[in-house]
Structures are given as structure tokens and as C-alpha cells.
Amino acid sequence: MGDRAVLKKSRKWVVKIGSALLTDDGKGLDHVAIARWVDQLVMLKNQGVEVVLVSSGAIAEGMTRLGWAERPAQVHKLQAAAAIGQMGLVQVYEQNFARHDTRTAQVLLTHDDLSDRKRYLNARGTLCTLLELGVVPVVNENDTVITDEIKFGDNDTLAALVANLVEAEAVVLLTDQLGLFTADPRSNPDAELILQAQADDPMIVAVAGDGGVLGRGGMATKVRAAKLAARSGAVTVIASGRLEAVLLDLRAGKQVGTLVLPSSSPIAARKQWLAGHLQVKGTLVIDDGAVVAVSERGKSLLSAGVVSVEGEFSRGEMVSVVDVRGSELARGLVSYSSANARLIMGRPSSSILSILGFVNEDELLHRDNLALS
Question: Of the four listed, 32, 190, 273, 366, which is most buried by Cβ atoms within 10 Å?
């Protein structure tokens, strides 16, 4: 199928590996399997793919180290298990990537990090910088501090949100199942693997099941994650991590797992997300030179091109960009507060440090956080 070609051409992947896979169904970290996945991730990197790894397994590994057979219900025990298990998880990844002279970085996130605009931009900036440096970020939910109010609920959801954060074209959810089936293959021998579906097809929600003992997410969470990833234009693949070369097979366009396709292109989806999901807090009025740079040349908006700042807003909030005649050109997530924007407007980026004493970004509005109206 031609739609698999997107996996051959894409340049940024988020790969999520679940607890059951990582811990061989609760027996402790599966070092052989982890080494195999790392080998494949490095091969993807060598093929020009920027990779973010979202890894479960901290609580499961902590339970193994503590000798617990059942997942505890008490939050503090879960958090303690996560703290203990995270040490082992990170060590194994670092050792395996080091075999290939590849650096890794641990990034622990909570829901607040992605719902708060300022922290969203900070998280995005950190992850994108790590990728630019050739580092593989290993992302997990910060289970040691989360409460029910701030947790993602599962790492499938986290993977989809990270895909939006870094504008990944593909999300790969590795599980212990071959993919999404028309029925539960464990109880129905007539169940068939769904090779491809649209994210907005109600059928895929209807056939998704629930999670296992170790993880918090079954097929239902994977389908929800695929729908979430589709909002930012990313394709999602649900596939078995037990297949020998699953990531390389996907990269080659082979018929592996279930491919879930978005209904719109990444650019259209992100524009819709930027324009429709956030309230405009202020306005940047820009000169004619900046109008050409932003509207016609696809450039970021620099402080030098701003002639007026209207309204009060914080870093990371949505602002409207208008020309001197008041016509809206774009909307985007601003890199500086209104107070700081007024101080640096009309001035070159090179003077931001001397004026403010710090630099968030060289751009007032980075083109990746800006959608033309």
C-alpha cells in the first residue's frame, strides 16, 4: 500500500516501548530485547531519522527489584517503585546506546509540562535541541511526583503528545500484540489483523480491548493515542516489539502492524491546532519587511520587525500577528512575555541578551510555533 511510504520518507519518529515488552511480562528488564531495539533505533538514526524514545518500565522494573508480584494500589508505593526502577531503566539504555557511541538524555514529564504554555515551549525547546545535537531523548512520565490530577494515564498518550511537541511524522507503539485485530485474537481464532485504518474510523475504537497486569494501557489507549497523534498530522503504527527487526521492517515499508492514518496533512493539522485550541492573548504589529519574511518566505518573526506590542501575555501564550494596517497574517506561541517583547521590539536579536539579561529564543515567534492565517 502506498500509504506505508510515509514511514520510508519520514524524518522524525517517536517510538514507545511498553512495560510488558521491556520486562518480559514482569520477569525484570529484558536486556537482550532492549539491546535489539537500541540497535534498530541507531540504524534508523544512521538513515537520517531523528528518534525520540518513550519508554515505560520504571514501575515494573522497580517492582521486580523489590520482589513485588502485584502492582500496589498505594500511590507512594508506586512512586517509590518508579524511583527505584528508573535507575535501572536509564542505565540499561545508556549502556546500550553507548555501544554505538550515541548519547542519550533522560526527560521526565508530567501533564502540567505540556498543558502549561511556558513549560510546553521549554519542553519543546529542550527536546528539539537534543535532537539537533544527535542525542536520543528517553522520555517517561515522571511517576515519582505525579498525582491522578497531573498524570497522562499511560505512555501511549505521552508518546502522542510528544509527537505533537516535536512535530514528529510517525508514532510507533510497540506492544506484545501484532497490531489491532478485528476481535481479540487470544479468544477468537477468526480475528484478523487490521493492516490500515483512518484515525476517525469508529471501527477501531469498537475493536480495541483493555490493558494487561503490568501496563496501564491496552489497545484502547493505543487507539486513543493514534487519534491524538492524528490531530497533529502524525501517522501511528501499532506493532509487535517481539518481531526481530520490527522498526527496520516498518522503515522499509513492510506490512507490519496496524497503520493508523490522519485525515489531514501535518501542516494543516498543526495550523488547525494552533488556530483553534488556544485563546489569543495579545497582538504583535509588524513592519512590511517582516510581513514579507513571515508570509512569503516562511521565516520566523524576529524582534527587529515588530513595531508595536498590544495586550498582556506570558511566554508561550497565543498571539496574533498583524501588519500596520491591522490585517491578521498569522498566529503563534510567543517566546517572550509582553513586557519583554516591548523592551526588545525593533531591536536585533543580537541585542536581546544585553537588554533582558537572558535569551529564551533568538526569535520572538519561531516559525515552527506559527501558523499563517
Answer: 366
